[in-house]
């Protein structure tokens, strides 16, 4: 197997939605993968852009899914947003909260006053995901923002992975207010670096590995924080989005799911892999199977090889040179 992935990294910073679970349903193998990381004495931190739950509630939810977790191991975008507000506002300032009670509690915990309606005292708006957000709440925030209040968004994820599929995330609600106010919010969570830095510091890690399913938040945030990243294909990211990823959203490793965490680093790293040959011809990449294919790992090895070639040559257009390659590309959704 060669060098173990976790021998390169002194902590694992795990995204949750789309990586560990889909709403109320654990992703198969995730609990075993987290337990395997702990057995290797590598600290685990859960880093989520979902601002709807307090760290204790997140830990309890993970326990209900068979995953050991302590509140101190959870870092949320609501905590990051509260920190941003505390840095910019005077103690006791009134902050209009669009989100759950957990977000309001984080605002209160840093010495600010959470409110739900516009008054002359409101100096800031903080917005986080809640499945119960209404037009009336957005209207209150709109008035405050248009009147000059500081606007902090916990995150701008357009969608939220659930057991039913992709549903509107906080970013969709943020977009509504952006349209109504023509103002850009300050974003506190991913893809900004502070959330990752705080999680890594809590584990006393200097070379933490970020693991997530979204290129524009998890992977971009890892890059902003100067950390390596592993993308898993259990949520938003696909083979196609990987091939077309801008430089700031390119992971070092790619895997189907979290079980890869206890595997070999070289097997997961993006780059040329045995069994596949890619050459650039004009504006296309010609892909061919070779005699040293390895069977079970063909599909992901092909993706790692293709990412390397597409990123170097700047083209995602693919041409299959043989039937085996055509079938593998089809398995990846790339035909």
Question: Notable features of this structure?
Answer:
single chain; Rossmann fold; globular; GMP Synthetase, Chain A, domain 3; 3 domains; 6-stranded parallel beta sheet; about 325 residues
Structure commentary:
This protein is an alpha/beta fold. The protein folds into 3 domains: 5-49 and 191-267, Rossmann fold (3-Layer(aba) Sandwich); 78-187, Rossmann fold (3-Layer(aba) Sandwich); 271-331, GMP Synthetase, Chain A, domain 3 (2-Layer Sandwich). The protein is 35% helix and 21% strand. The protein is built from 12 helices and 18 strands. The protein has helices at residues 30-39, 55-64, 77-88, 101-109, 135-146, 170-181, 194-202, 215-224, 239-243, 265-268, 298-313, 323-331, and strands at 12-14, 21-22, 25-26, 44-48, 74-76, 94-98, 113-115, 122-127, 150-153, 159-162, 165-168, 186-187, 209-212, 228-232, 253-255, 276-281, 284-289, 318-320. The strands form 5 sheets. It has a 6-stranded parallel beta sheet with strand order 5-4-1-13-14-15, sandwiched between helices. Strands 7-6-8-9-12 form a 5-stranded parallel beta sheet, sandwiched between helices. A hairpin with a 2-residue loop joins strand 2 and strand 3. Helix 5 (135-146) packs across helix 6 (170-181). The longest helix has 16 residues, at 298-313. It starts with 11 loop residues before the first strand and ends with a helix. The model has no long low-confidence stretch (mean pLDDT 94).
């Amino acid at each position: 197997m060669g060098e173990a992935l976790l021998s390169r990294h002194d902590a694992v910073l795990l995204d949750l939605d789309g990586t560990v679970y889909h709403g109320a349903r654990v992703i198969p193998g995730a609990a075993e993968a987290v337990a395997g990381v702990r057995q290797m004495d590598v600290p685990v931190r859960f880093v989520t852009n979902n601002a709807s739950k307090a760290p204790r509630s997140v830990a309890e939810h993970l326990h209900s899914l068979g995953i050991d977790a302590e509140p101190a191991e959870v870092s949320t975008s609501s905590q990051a947003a509260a920190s941003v507000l505390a840095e910019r506002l005077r103690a006791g300032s009134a902050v209009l909260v669009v989100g759950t009670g957990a977000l309001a509690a984080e605002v209160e915990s840093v010495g600010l006053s959470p409110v739900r309606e516009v008054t002359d005292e409101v100096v800031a708006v903080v917005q986080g995901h809640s499945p119960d957000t209404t037009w009336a709440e957005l209207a209150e925030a709109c008035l405050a923002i248009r009147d000059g209040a500081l606007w902090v968004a916990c995150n701008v994820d357009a969608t939220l992975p659930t057991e039913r599929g992709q549903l509107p995330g906080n970013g969709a609600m943020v977009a509504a207010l952006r349209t109504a106010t023509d103002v850009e919010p300050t974003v506190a969570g991913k893809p900004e670096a502070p959330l990752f830095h705080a999680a890594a510091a809590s584990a006393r890690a200097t070379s933490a590995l970020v693991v997530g399913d979204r290129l524009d938040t998890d992977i971009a945030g890892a890059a902003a924080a100067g950390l390596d990243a592993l993308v898993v294909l259990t949520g938003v990211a696909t083979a196609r989005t990987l091939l077309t990823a801008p430089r700031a959203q390119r992971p070092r490793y790619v895997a189907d799911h979290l079980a890869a965490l206890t595997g070999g680093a070289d097997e997961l790293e993006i780059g040329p892999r045995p069994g596949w040959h890619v050459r650039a011809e004009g504006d296309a990449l010609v892909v061919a199977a070779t005699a040293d294919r390895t069977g079970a790992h063909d599909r992901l090895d092909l993706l790692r090889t293709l990412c390397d070639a597409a990123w170097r040559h700047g083209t995602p257009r693919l041409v299959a040179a043989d039937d085996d390659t055509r079938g593998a590309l089809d398995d990846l959704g790339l035909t």
